[in-house]
Write a structure and sequence with these properties.
Elements lengths: L1 E2 L8 H4 L4 E4 L6 E4 L2 E3 L2 E3 L16 E4 L6 H16 L6 H17 L1 H12 L3 H27 L2 E3 L8 E9 L2 E5 L7 H12 L3 E5 L5 H14 L5 E3 L4 H8 L5 E5 L2 H12 L5 E4 L5 E4 L5 H14 L11 E5 L3 H16 L15 H12 L7 E3 L3 E2 L4 E2 L2 E4 L6 H4 L6 E7 L4 H7 L6 E5 L3 H10 L4 E4 L20 E2 L5 H6 L1 E9 L14 H12 L2 H9 L5
Parallel strand pairs: 9-10, 9-12, 10-11, 12-13, 14-15, 14-21, 15-20, 19-20, 21-22
Antiparallel strand pairs: 1-6, 2-3, 4-5, 4-6, 7-8, 8-24, 13-23, 16-19, 17-18
Helix pairs in contact: 2-8, 3-5, 4-5, 4-7, 5-6, 10-11, 17-18
Pfam families: Aldedh
Keywords: NAD, Oxidoreductase
GO molecular function: aldehyde dehydrogenase (NAD+) activity
């Protein structure tokens, strides 16, 4: 039971939240709408927008039990486990058919995908195509091309101690896996791990982010239309639905999001000893040397900051470190490039995504308005809450203990910190938790080597930003606070596979040396084996030594 507090109904959308969950599977298709009952009158989020009530209320409010609870989640997982145990998902043919269905879905529904991304984030069409559609399509095509090779057992050498023998590593699917996605790239970051899970032969539940509601709804519908309903399911919803899913036993949980929720996911997984991949984030630095091409450097930083979802990316440049001497020139060039790309009137540009919602808008404004930060703005700073837009903003020498330098920014704000010597930046970066990405712009080979050797990060790019994630032969993942595990390309397949070690032996070559009793003669043979004397080893294994 809960008491409705005074003034609760000033805005109906804040009084009643409607969460939906659509699932497809052996249980059929089901839809859930979270409602509350007040005095036996059923309300939902479909209350007319003109309804306002500012009166003090003392009505008792009874919450109806959600339709998708832990019990329903358990049934869903059990049905998926039956599918997996049947062996259906393990075959090459099934995996290929599902990957082909994803590829077909992306090709046929491209316009709908772009429209959903526009609704959620106002993503420009070209950005939506490059960062979401093309990324997912490329991952799918690579899996289709390489799957047979990925599935083949890997032959490995054996030791003389097992002669004669052969050995191999067999990649086998983990089982029933859960993928919890995020809102900033809601299409590609949902499908990319799912592609890896399917390629590896698993049954999958995808939980997209409710914050990107249009894309979440679209994924639910499209997966239901194109994919195998008995093995691949989308569950929509918010905290209650995610909590219900996390209470279940999974064979792997793959989570993309922030560190706070990542800890919750890991704690839930630990109860069942479930392995996890956590794709988190952090404060990704970009160090700029004085010997660089400033125009190219600035364009690549702008691309990795404001062009890339308006800074709402886990690998976005979070802050820059450069020398005091170079800083004014770098700022001037960055401003020039920003205005060249987005125009003089930054708030009118249609080439940037918007902030995802008012919560994150206010969070970013709070970072800007902190007393020790507000006077450090050297460019930008304009904002419009009704449009959820903040102009590209550059700040100079904000204090290291300010909020903007302590937490991941995840938005269009870019602090620049100056140092006397470029090498001083290394200690500054390493004082913070290990980031998901680190960037260096320099023509100095010695500086490059020192940066790679001494900076701890999930990944790096030298003289560019963000493009490292487009290389399928490179693993993408964090370290420490920025996450654990990796994926992309074959690494996605590996993330959802168990590498099973298999040794094959015949009944020939059975040496008595290995069996007790260990007589002095056998001890000599064992010593010869351990000493590496090839002839004695071979004779011992073949049983030619006598007591």
């Amino acid at each position: 039971m809960m008491i409705v507090s005074p003034g609760l109904f000033k805005h109906p959308s804040r009084c009643f939240r409607s969460y939906s969950i659509v699932g497809v599977g052996l249980l059929g298709t089901f839809t859930y709408c979270h409602k509350y009952k007040i005095n036996r009158v059923s309300f939902s989020s479909f209350i007319p927008s003109y309804y306002h009530c500012r009166a003090t209320l003392s009505t008792m409010m009874e919450e109806v039990k959600p339709e998708f609870d832990s019990d329903k989640a358990a049934v869903l997982v059990n049905e998926l486990r039956k599918t997996f145990n049947s062996g259906k998902t393990k075959s090459y043919e099934w995996r290929i058919s599902q990957l082909e269905s994803i590829s077909k879905m992306i090709d046929e529904k491209e316009k709908e995908i772009v429209e959903a991304l526009r609704k959620d984030l106002s993503k420009p069409e070209l950005e939506a195509f490059l960062s979401e559609i093309l990324m997912a399509r490329s991952s799918c095509k690579l899996a289709l091309k390489e799957l047979k090779q990925w599935m083949m057992p890997q032959k490995v050498e054996t030791s003389l101690a097992t002669y004669p023998s052969s050995a191999e590593i067999v990649a086998e699917p983990l089982g029933v896996v859960l993928v919890i996605s995020t809102w900033n790239f809601p299409f590609s970051l949902s499908l990319d791990p799912v592609i890896g899970a399917i390629a590896a032969g698993n049954a999958v539940v995808l939980k997209p982010s409710e914050i990107a509601s249009a894309t979440s709804s679209l994924l639910s519908r499209l997966v239901g239309e194109y994919m195998d309903k008995s093995a691949i399911i989308v569950v929509e919803g918010a905290v209650a639905e995610t909590s219900a899913l996390l209470e279940q036993k999974w064979d792997k949980i793959f989570f993309t999001g922030g560190a706070r929720v990542g800890r919750i996911v890991m704690a839930a997984a630990a109860k069942n000893l479930t392995p996890v991949t956590l794709e988190l984030g952090g404060k990704c630095p970009a160090v700029v040397d004085s010997n660089v091409n400033l125009q190219v450097t600035s364009r690549r930083i702008v691309a990795g900051k404001w062009v890339c979802n308006n800074g709402q990316a886990c690998i976005s440049v979070d802050y820059i470190i450069t020398t005091k001497e170079l800083a004014p020139k770098l700022i001037a060039t960055l401003v020039s490039v920003v205005e060249e790309i987005f125009g003089k009137d930054l708030m009118e540009s249609k080439e940037r995504s918007r902030i995802i919602n008012s919560f994150h808008f206010k969070r970013l404004v709070n970072l800007l308005e902190e007393d020790k930060v507000s006077n450090k703005i050297v460019f930008g700073g304009q904002r419009e809450e009704s449009q959820l837009q903040i102009a590209p903003t550059i700040l100079l020498d904000v204090p290291e203990d300010s909020m903007i330098m302590q937490e991941e920014i995840f938005g269009p704000l870019l602090p620049i910190i100056t140092v006397e010597r470029l090498e001083d930046s290394f200690a500054m970066i390493n004082r913070k938790p290990k980031p998901l990405a680190a960037y260096l712009f320099s023509d100095d080979e010695q500086i490059k080597r020192k940066f790679v050797q001494n900076i701890y990060a999930g990944g790096m790019a030298i003289n560019d930003t963000i493009l490292q994630v487009t290389v399928p032969t490179l693993p993408f993942g964090g370290v420490g606070e920025s996450g654990m595990g990796s994926y992309h390309g074959k690494f996605s397949f590996d993330a959802f596979s168990h590498k099973k070690a298999v040794l094959y032996r015949s009944f020939a070559g059975d040496s008595p040396t290995r069996y007790p009793p260990y007589t002095p003669g056998k001890k000599k043979q064992i010593k010869a084996l351990l000493s590496g004397k090839l002839l004695n080893i071979m004779l011992a294994l073949l049983g030619f030594y006598k007591d």
